[in-house]
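Posted in: Protein Modeling Q&A

I'm a second-year student putting together a small comparison for a lab meeting, and my supervisor asked me to include a predicted structure for Eukaryotic peptide chain release factor subunit 1. I've never done this before, so apologies if this is the wrong subforum. The sequence is pasted below exactly as I got it from our records. If anyone can share the structure token output, I'd also love a short note on what stands out.
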Amino acid sequence: MATAMQNDDSAIEKWKLRRTIQYLSSLRGHGTSLVTIIVPAQSQLSQTTRLLTDEYALSSSIRSPQTRHNVQQALSAAQGRLRLYTQNTLPKNGLVLYTGIVDDGEQNRETKISMCIEPLQPLQRDLYRCETHFITDFLQQQIIDSVNDLNRRRYGIIVIDGNGTLFARIDPQQGTTILKRIQVSLPK
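Accepted answer (user: helix_wrangler)
Welcome! Here is the predicted structure, written out as tokens:
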């Protein structure tokens, strides 16, 4: 019963993550004002904080006043989000930060986005990127990999009765394979 509930929770989390990724992938910013930051669990949070401080100082040399303002706003939001975490409270799979000011083309408005996501699988590398869009391809790949892992699961079956024993494997791609059959004659 508990396993079924955990599987349901896992499926709901994957669905939420997929929807969030679709939403983030559709957003576009003015200039290179959308910031994506990947923080693996084993990395030092102080290094990431220092990087953001350095990037904030460098952003003052951006020529376009609107892009400069948007980048500085995004970096400030990212620094604020990182302050909520310590090395001990960082999620076990790492953390992905998405911050920036997004153009809403239909109504000529700008919307501030600041989002933290814990990925499905542990992150292996860190990343800091300012682009016109958020970097979400690695999260999409994690969702695809998790679905493929479900399809790759194999189950073993052992059937024991009065006539013998049967060892079999159930594989989603190959079906059922009988590995070994042992027959015995037991006295009545």
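A couple of things worth pointing out for your meeting: Strands lie at 34-39, 95-104, 109-117, 127-131, 155-161, 164-171, 175-183. The chain has two domains: 2-151, 154-183.
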